[in-house]
Amino acid sequence: MEIKLISYNKKIKEDYVLKDINYTFKQGNIYGLIGKNGSGKTMLLKAMSGFLRPSNGKVIVNDQELYLKEEFPKDMGVMIGNCEYIKDMTGKDNLKYLASLLKKIDDDRINEVIDIVNLTDEKDKLVKKYSLGMKQKLGIAQAIMEYPKILLLDEPFNGIDNESVSKIKKYLYSIKKDTIIIIATHYKEDIDNFCDIIIKLENGTIINN
Questions:
Q1: I want to staple 109 with a disulfide (CB 3.0 to 4.6 A). Which of 10, 104, 105, 167 is the partner?
Q2: 100, 142 in Cβ contact below 8 A?
Q3: pLDDT tens digit string along 113-137?
Q4: Which pTM value belongs to this model?
């Protein structure tokens, strides 16, 4: 399992948001993408998830080049930006609705991921009453619930209490052997002493490769 970016460039209007990215992400590692806001972290996650078509270059996921067909990579869990949910449904019911689309997991797994992200006490609240931290937990839960082989998380710990962060990190560490896990953040403490490999981005370019 690997994700390979080859001479990847993305230009929006007159500016490059990603420039000459050459990197291979491999199964068994937790990667941390670090950089200031606007450095290209979120754009890089979008490039790997199929949301951002390159101006030139390639993204290859398990020997399959993205963008040749209008489809997203299989077995990928994604939390990028502000996830949208049905506000008049509970957190658990939102997860059940999402799970019904592919029918890969049952109610027991949904309850399990709710516990993993420490959302058990709020699972029956309407999402419109959720705090930022609760929404972040729900976003992580939907990303991990279907046992993805690739997991892309954009600023996942924003607004989440330390106890819950520790519990989530423990789970991520437990699945890393069979998974590519990539966490984007501009907070160094989110990835210090946790990620196996830290990649620094600046102005759309990897600067420590």
A1: 105
A2: no
A3: 999 999 999 999 999 999 999 999 9
A4: 0.94
